[in-house]
Amino acid sequence: MTALQAITFDLDDTLWDNHGVMLRTEEGHYAWLLEALSIWRATRHEAPLPLGYEEGIADYLQRRQQFAKDVPERRGDFTWLRLRALEAQLEAEGLPRSAAILWAAAAMNEFHRLRVQVSPHPEAAGLLSALSERYQLAAITNGNIHLKRQPLAAYFPVAIAAGELLAPKPDHTPFLTALSKLNVSPKYAMHVGDSWAEDILPAQQLGMHAVWVSNDTDQALPPRVHRIAHIKELPGVLDRVESSLA
């Protein structure tokens, strides 16, 4: 038996709580867009767009969902979906296409500025620092957080945005891509994540060890799968796994 060589991590709701961040980001970037557009049009002596926040953000969501249906290969590329939806909405409101493209891109810049304002669990940085001395580390996410600007980026020389591969988890592609970059076989790697369907099952199917961050104690665990309630419990799992492989 050979000891573990690499650990891959999901990010959202694994290394930080994500719900509040997404809510602030969703609301914040769209409110910013409407306010900035209003100011810009006023300086040009143009009337405000007849677009209010509530109906605007609902339409924005509907357009994202429609693009995901119409272009299914892009369903996991959330930045692309948002850009296309904003461009289409602004064009429908009367902006020239060139202006719609520029303002959609500006709104997504604000989205990414807000999106990286996550608060990692207090134990996360120290844990990753210690693990990096023993293992190769990588991040694999379905989210569209800016991977080089997120606060734990320094610990992940390999970081995979699955949506940009057009193969969101649970597709095996992002896992295999990360392991290929690390030059590690699945059986010598472990994946840590909070989603049973998107993290644990595909990792287990590939022959990786897997650690499920969950309070669900009803789900039976297959071989090579472990459960923890919080990322701070990971060292204990690693000690047990390493002992079994010794």
Descriptors for this entry?
246 residues, alpha/beta, Rossmann fold, elongated
Number of domains: 2
Which shape, going by the Cα principal axes? elongated
The CATH architecture assignment of the largest domain turns out to be: 3-Layer(aba) Sandwich
Judged by helices, strands and strand pairing, the structural class is alpha/beta
Order of helices and strands: EHHHHHEEHEHEEH
Helix share bin = 40-55%
CATH superfamily (homologous) name of the largest domain: HAD superfamily/HAD-like
CATH topology of the largest domain: Rossmann fold
Mean pLDDT: 95
Ranges with pLDDT <50 over ≥5 residues?
none
Q: Give the radius of gyration.
A: 21 Å
The total beta strand count reads 6
How much of the sequence lies in strands comes to 5-15%
How many helices? The count is 8
Biggest sheet overview: 6 strands, parallel
Task: Characterise the protein shown here.
This protein is α/β, with parallel strands linked by helices and 246 residues long. Helices cover 48% and strands 11% of the residues. The chain has helices spanning 19-43, 53-70, 78-92, 97-115, 124-131, 173-182, 196-205, 234-245; strands at residues 6-9, 136-141, 158-161, 189-193, 209-213, 225-228. Helix 1 packs antiparallel against helix 4 and helix 2 packs across helix 3. The longest helix has 25 residues, at 19-43.
